[in-house]
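User: Here's a chain of 107 residues. Predict its fold as tokens.
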Amino acid sequence: MHTVESRVRGNDDIPAAASAISARDLRRVFKGTLIAAGGFTADSAHRMIEAGDADLVAFGRLFISNPDLPERLRVGAPLNHYDRSTFVGGDARGYTDYSFLSTAPAL
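Assistant: Prediction complete.
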């Protein structure tokens, strides 16, 4: 089962401090594989899995802006910020122009 935490209101993100409840509540009655998504950071995803509230955590927006997201999370590298205004419609802008960690400018 795949759940999505309600972390967006229109075009605005709900603060990351909002706790994930969908997967945690469903875990009480659903014993199959549970995937949670919706505004997770590397730390909150680890906590969710360690608590047993989900088996996997999916990332959407961060994957759009970080084509090498697994590697960035693995090494603790900074993440590119996404531009929500480019998510739907228009052209390739916002989907193909984010830098990879190996090509990112030095900070």
